[in-house]
Specification:
By secondary structure, the chain is of the alpha+beta class. About 30% of the residues lie in helices and about 20% in strands. A hairpin with a 6-residue loop joins strand 3 and strand 4. The radius of gyration is 30 Å and the shape is globular. It starts with 9 loop residues before the first helix and ends with a helix. It binds adenosine-5'-diphosphate and magnesium ion. Magnesium ion binds next to helix 2. Adenosine-5'-diphosphate binds next to helix 2 and helix 4.
């Protein structure tokens, strides 16, 4: 039989590699920005069109490339950054794989213009699907400009897989933020569809954060500085009172590279223990500097995780440094500040495997005490949630049973019709027959003709509110309550942008906007159903939902808004309801068009027939 194995042609191999490196326009943004930084640029301009689907261009004033290098930069495994495998452990550049340009050129129309400082003229290369179409001499300023057009033009499946422009832009802005935060000493400008969306002059770290997230951020920042043999920390944490419900502004940089680490995130959470409201997340902007030989970043081109040699030590130092700052700046009472000598030498953690969650229930941030000095090892009382009685186990059976036999709404018939008519016509019926019952502040039980009905109060209420909001938005006549004093809320420029997009729909729900300016929104009226104190949380949640919108073609801002508001305003699990409220909820639910499911398609109620119950009693 003939031989069948062949080497893949280069352009095919490049396309396959591109699948790894380039997932979306934001990946191109990241790679190009990082190349510009590696080239020593001091100003970098990012130009985007149509969320990067039409164009991603990065212009830098870095060191540029020679004629030969310009051509070679598009070859796979072509890099100027490492020569031997050992160099991997001494890395001080972002790139080192030499894959990015080759991958990008395999799946887009790319134009490169580059010139080195001492040259009079530069080089321009046009390359399309790994084929070089032209290479010419051009007049161009010092530095490099790379434009990447029509990403995935030759892989329609990938192109179709791209999300809505809102989502892709969000990813791009995220990458831009990460790179800009890691390099405050470099000036960045970003243009989207012709308008300038960010202009970040070179500055110090605090100014950079403020330039990105809005002037209001300034007063929220608490500096963190710690210098130990194994780890240097600098940056800021957000004051606890500004903590948000949504995890937005959380940034770790290790040796100027953005990383994600659930473990280190936990260290911050534990430093804030007792200072945050339930469900709130601390914000942080922290730069960690470690010896490059103690980390391994060579995991995956697009992954943001890295491996540390001694995570436990980093955890302890980080936690302690953040606590120290919160204490020093009078945010938390000073707890441990004889500055433990242990800080400078690694702790001898013996812990293996996953970190265990240790919560010191006896820790009271408002009590002066000397505590925690030798930290983590003394997990005085590890907290474990004890299930309340065996109610839950009962419920598990119930639910699974219930969903299996979930009936059509049409079959749900209320029992109230069969209420025994008393022969004594009792006008002032003191003991009205109770038709609903709430248990565990979570479910409402009601009887129906065929048996019983169990309603999830939170989901049911979401359904009711959702249909209500939708209706209001379509007929455009919601009721507003005027506020005595307009509410002033601060947002970042990007958040303002989203509010502007949703303004009309928000107005149809009853919001009245007095002004929407650069970083400030003034609200003079809110929907009747919205308590004034909740407005900022609701808008924050809404912005977050828009940013994380599960995008598809049938995305509708109206629908998203209704869902988001319903989610924010619905009665929560854990809230106790009067009998009247319970009844009202049940009635409103069954007056809905689609009572069976919540706006996010979760079951709102289950039924159990008498037959089913009977079977349980055999
Ligand atoms: P890597 O960054 O991993 O080395 P890339 O494919 O991103 O791989 O880039 C290949 C090479 O092209 C780089 O090593 C660098 O020498 C050169 N290069 C890329 N972008 C620039 C730029 N903006 N300025 C100067 N040189 C660049
Ligand atoms: Mg690179």
């Amino acid at each position: 039989m003939a031989d069948i194995i062949q080497l893949l042609p280069d352009h095919v191999a490049n396309q396959i590699a591109a699948g790894e490196v380039v997932q979306r326009p934001a990946s191109v943004v990241k790679e190009l920005l990082e190349n510009a930084i590696d080239a020593g640029a001091t100003t970098i301009k990012l130009i985007i069109k149509d969320a990067g689907k039409t164009l991603v261009q990065v212009i830098d004033n870095g060191k540029g490339m020679s004629v030969t290098d310009a051509r070679l930069s598009f070859e796979r495994h072509a890099t100027s950054k490492i020569r031997t495998a050992d160099d991997l452990f001494l890395l001080n550049t972002k790139g080192f794989r030499g894959e990015a340009l080759a991958s990008i050129a395999a799946i887009a129309h790319v134009e490169l213009k580059t010139k080195q400082e001492h040259e009079d003229v530069g080089t321009c290369i046009e390359i399309e699907g790994s084929t070089v179409n032209s290479q010419e001499v051009v007049v161009t300023p010092k530095g490099t400009s790379i434009s990447v057009k029509n990403l995935f033009y030759n892989i329609p499946a990938r192109r179709n897989f791209l999300k809505s422009n809102t989502v892709e832009t969000r990813h791009i802005v995220d990458e831009f933020h990460r790179v800009a935060l890691a390099h405050p000493n470099i000036g960045f400008v970003m243009f989207h569809n012709g308008s300038e969306t960010f202009n970040l002059p070179d500055s110090n770290y605090r100014q950079r954060i403020v330039n990105i997230f809005g002037t209001k951020t300034n007063e929220k920042l608490v500096p963190v500085d710690e210098d130990t043999e194994v780890l240097k920390i600098s940056g800021f944490v957000g004051k606890p009172e500004f903590a948000k419900k949504t995890r937005g502004e959380q940034f770790f940089f290790v040796n100027d590279r953005f990383i994600k680490s659930a473990y280190l995130n936990h260290a911050i959470g534990s430093a804030f223990e007792g200072l945050l409201k339930d469900g709130a997340h601390a914000s942080y902007f922290l730069n960690l500097t470690v010896n490059p030989q103690t980390i391994d970043i060579n995991i995956h081109p697009t992954k943001t995780e890295i491996k540390f040699d001694d995570e436990h030590t980093l955890y302890a130092i980080l936690r302690s440094a953040v606590k120290h700052s919160l204490g020093q700046f009078n945010i938390a009472p000073v707890l441990d500040f004889d500055r433990d000598a242990n800080l400078d030498t690694p702790y001898s953690y013996q812990q293996k495997g996953e970190p265990s969650v240790e919560i010191d229930r006896s820790f009271n941030p408002f009590r002066e005490e000397k505590q925690f000095s030798n930290s983590g090892t003394s997990s005085s009382s590890s907290y474990k949630k004890t299930p309340s009685a065996n109610w839950e186990s009962l419920y598990v059976g119930l639910e699974s049973k219930g969903t299996q036999t979930q009936q059509d709404f049409s079959e749900v018939e209320f029992e109230s019709a069969t209420k025994n008519e008393s022969i004594f016509d009792n006008d002032n019926q003191v003991e009205k027959k109770q038709s609903t019952y709430q248990f565990h502040n979570k479910y409402i039980v009601s009887t129906i003709k065929s048996g019983m009905l169990l309603i999830d109060q939170h989901r049911a209420h979401q359904r009711v509110l959702y249909e209500d909001f939708l209706k209001n938005m379509t007929i455009k006549e919601a009721m507003s309550q005027q506020l005595l004093f307009p509410l002033q809320l601060h947002f970042s420029p990007q958040e303002i942008n989203i509010i502007n997009q949703l303004k009309t729909d928000l107005e149809h729900t009853g919001f009245i906007f007095q002004t929407i300016k650069e970083e400030l929104v003034e609200i003079s009226g809110v929907p009747v159903s919205v308590p004034e104190s909740e407005v900022s949380i609701i808008l924050e949640q809404l912005i977050n939902d828009v940013e994380n919108e599960v995008p598809d073609s049938n995305f509708s801002p109206t629908d998203l808004l209704a869902k988001s508001l319903a989610k924010s305003l619905a009665i929560k699990t854990g809230q106790s309801l009067t009998i009247m409220e319970q009844e009202h909820l049940v009635n409103s639910l069954f007056a809905c068009k689609e009572p069976n499911v919540s706006p996010t398609n979760r079951t709102t109620f289950v039924t159990m027939t008498v037959d089913e119950l009977d079977k349980k009693f055999v």
